């Protein structure tokens, strides 16, 4: 593998280890961003299940967005995943940014999820 990929994997593993140590068993709000879209899901690591998910590819969002790779799309995904999590009875999560910096689209998603009622 390339050095860049290895560094990303190490950052992701380091962050997940810290989340596991400090989150106190909370569910995890995981973010993945690609060049064209952004995805978010609430994961129960103990059971190994995804409890709520949203992406910029969802039918309702895709029609409203110009592109899935901007802050507006990330904010819409954050709002939608928070609504779906609240429907599933989830209010507290730990935010897993993956190997990404807390900046731009990742920050927009997190802020929108907080405004919609998720606590992290």
TrEMBL record:
InterPro entries recorded: Ribosomal_L18, Ribosomal_uL18_bac-type, Ribosomal_uL18_bac/plant/anim
GO biological process, one term: translation
UniProt keyword annotations, A-Z: Ribonucleoprotein, Ribosomal protein, RNA-binding, rRNA-binding
Superkingdom of the source species: Bacteria
Single annotated GO MF: structural constituent of ribosome
CDD domains associated with the record: Ribosomal_L18_L5e
Cellular component terms (Gene Ontology): cytosolic large ribosomal subunit
Record PANTHER family: 39S RIBOSOMAL PROTEIN L18, MITOCHONDRIAL (PTHR12899), LARGE RIBOSOMAL SUBUNIT PROTEIN UL18M (PTHR12899:SF3)
NCBIfam families assigned to the protein according to its UniProt record, in alphabetical order: L18_bact
Subunit annotation: Part of the 50S ribosomal subunit; part of the 5S rRNA/L5/L18/L25 subcomplex. Contacts the 5S and 23S rRNAs.
Family the entry assigns: Belongs to the universal ribosomal protein uL18 family.
HAMAP family noted in UniProt: Ribosomal_uL18_B (MF_01337_B)
Reported function: This is one of the proteins that bind and probably mediate the attachment of the 5S RNA into the large ribosomal subunit, where it forms part of the central protuberance.
Protein name: Large ribosomal subunit protein uL18
Biological source species: Acidiphilium rubrum
Highest classification ranks of the organism: Bacteria, Pseudomonadati, Pseudomonadota, Alphaproteobacteria, Acetobacterales
């Amino acid at each position: 593998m390339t050095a860049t990929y290895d560094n990303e994997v190490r950052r992701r593993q380091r962050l997940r280890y810290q989340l596991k140590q400090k989150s106190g068993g909370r569910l995890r709000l995981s973010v993945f961003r690609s060049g064209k879209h952004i995805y978010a899901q609430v994961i129960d690591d103990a059971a190994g299940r995804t409890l709520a998910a949203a992406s910029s590819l969802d039918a309702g969002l895709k029609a409203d967005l110009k592109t899935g790779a901007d802050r507006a799309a990330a904010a819409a995904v954050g709002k939608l995943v928070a609504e779906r999590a609240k429907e599933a009875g989830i209010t507290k999560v730990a935010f897993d940014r993956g190997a990404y910096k807390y900046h731009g689209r990742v920050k927009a998603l997190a802020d929108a999820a907080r405004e919609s009622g998720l606590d992290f």
